[in-house]
Design brief:
The structure is a single chain. This protein is an alpha/beta fold. The protein contains 13 helices and 19 strands. The chain has one domain (53-225, 282-468): Alkaline Phosphatase, subunit A (3-Layer(aba) Sandwich). A hairpin with a 6-residue loop joins strand 15 (413-414) and strand 16.
Length: 470
């Protein structure tokens, strides 16, 4: 260690290539140099090829939407409703809650084809059917977990264990942040999901890459407002003093988390001006507010979708909206219609608004949950459940739009009962690889060395889904 420029730097930071570079780059941002986070990203993981998308809006429908009530019409279920699933279908499958004696249940919802592409959608999606030609539907997604917490963590981080970086963190680590007065990764919506903060945490990446929760009513970010009696100049002086102390500590120890702390203080100061401007929707036309069904100052899902557009319009790299209302173990058909009534209009408006503003081509929109639902009925009088569906990881549906997606198509197919994917099976790692690809990154090269191993979002698997690409 004697030959190091800073002999007190901890060995673990030096070995992770974080000792001097990250501190100087973060410090450089505060001293006025350009795009420190982009330079940090370029040092660690440069873009591998020209991107088709600049930003991502991830509409995470926590709980597991029933594909059988939304996208995957199965007339065969009507023919065999009330009968047991053939043993040849179940084989060695693990069923999380319902018994193997559960019988098949058809959806009572009507389906019809929409758009030039002829996408088959249920009556629960009247607004989404208007933009059928603007989305790509994937019916053959599968995952590795059938309980909410591990499945949500797996979807977001590519691993079943806690402590790994989330997808938004990987994206901002790989590409950096183009704006100085807003975070690169923003989280909206209901964050009290089973997977918790792990779904938007930075794991072992520097914490500057973790998702920043925004509220859609009241103060956008808690504890950012000045205390009573503190004006802007007093706050600026305080931030500068704390910054000098932190930079002294950074120069001495080289801890990357000190650089993160410096950036956090500075960003918080900038957010005191930028966040209220973001939340003030006075500049939105009446027609736009009506399109979304958004009321300024409300915390509705519609308002969150409008905020997502405003965020990517301002250069935010990754925006996630979490809506946790899809775990329908009982009365699945009516519950689906109710949940769609609260969400699908705003989602449709988001696609239309992005398209009208010329933003859809550079914004990748992803819609889906952690898994789907079984073709068997779930009835449990002890829990008050009837006509519901259980968790199903083997085959479920997601859709994507914008940002290099070949819209107006349906990819994948499930068997006649909707239990297994039989055409173009697509794993969660494949989706993750494709999202990174559209942003200009090779998922196999976007790595971070931790505990002696090069980790990546897709772990040791994943293939880009070429059929999805333009």
């Amino acid at each position: 260690m004697q030959n190091l420029p800073h002999p007190l730097i901890a060995r673990r930071y030096f070995l992770n290539d974080c000792a001097l570079g990250i501190g100087r780059i973060a410090l450089g941002s505060l001293l006025g140099t350009t795009c420190a986070h982009q330079r940090l990203a370029a040092k660690l993981q440069p873009a591998h090829y020209p991107p088709k998308a600049k930003s991502v809006i991830f509409l995470f429908m926590a709980g597991g939407p029933s594909q059988l009530e939304l996208f995957d019409y199965k007339p065969t279920l009507r023919k065999y409703e009330g009968q047991l699933v053939p043993e040849s279908v179940l084989q060695d499958q693990e069923l999380p809650f319902i018994e193997r004696s559960a019988t098949l249940m058809a959806s009572p919802l009507k389906f019809a084809r929409h758009g030039k592409c002829g996408a088959e959608l249920s009556e629960a999606l009247p607004r989404l059917s208007q933009i059928a030609d603007d989305i790509a539907i994937v019916k053959s997604v599968r995952t590795d977990a059938f309980n909410h917490a591990p499945a949500q963590v797996f979807f977001h981080t590519g691993h079943l264990q806690f402590g790994k970086p989330s997808m938004g963190s990987w994206v901002t680590y790989g590409l950096g942040n183009e704006v100085e007065n807003l975070p690169g990764f923003v989280v909206l919506g209901n964050r009290s999901v089973s997977g918790g903060a792990a779904c938007y945490g930075s794991g072992f990446l520097p914490s500057t890459y973790q998702g920043v929760p925004f509220r859609s009513e009241g103060a956008p970010i808690l504890f950012v407002d000045n205390p009573a009696g503190i004006d802007e100049q007093s706050q600026r002086d305080t931030i500068d003093t704390i910054g000098r102390l932190n930079r002294h500590k950074l120069d001495r120890f080289g801890d990357p988390e000190i650089a993160t702390r410096i950036r956090a203080y500075e960003l918080a100061f900038q957010l005191q001006a930028s966040a209220p401007q973001l939340m003030d929707m006075c500049d939105e036309s009446a027609s736009t507010l009506e399109l979304y069904g958004a009321a300024p100052g409300s915390s509705s899902f519609a308002t969150q979708c409008l905020l997502a557009r405003r965020l990517v319009e301002r250069g935010v790299r990754f925006v996630e909206i979490i809506y946790s209302g899809w775990d329908h173990h009982s009365n699945v058909a009516d519950s689906i219609k109710n949940t769609c009534g609260k969400t699908e209009g705003a989602v449709t408006a988001l696609i239309q608004d992005l398209k009208n503003r010329g933003l859809l081509d550079e914004t990748l929109v992803v819609w889906g949950g952690e898994f789907g639902r079984t073709p068997m009925v779930e009835n449990n009088p002890a829990l008050g459940r009837s006509r519901g569906r259980d968790h199903h990881p083997n085959a479920f549906t997601m859709w994507l739009a914008g940002g290099g997606i070949r819209a107006g198509q349906t990819i994948g197919q499930t068997d006649d009962l909707g239990y297994h994917a039989i055409e173009d099976p697509i794993h969660i790692h494949d989706l993750q690889a494709t999202i990174l690809h559209l942003l200009g990154m090779d998922h196999k090269q976007l790595t971070f060395r931790h505990q002696g191993r090069d980790f990546r979002l897709t772990d040791v698997a994943g293939n880009v889904i070429d059929k999805l690409l333009t």
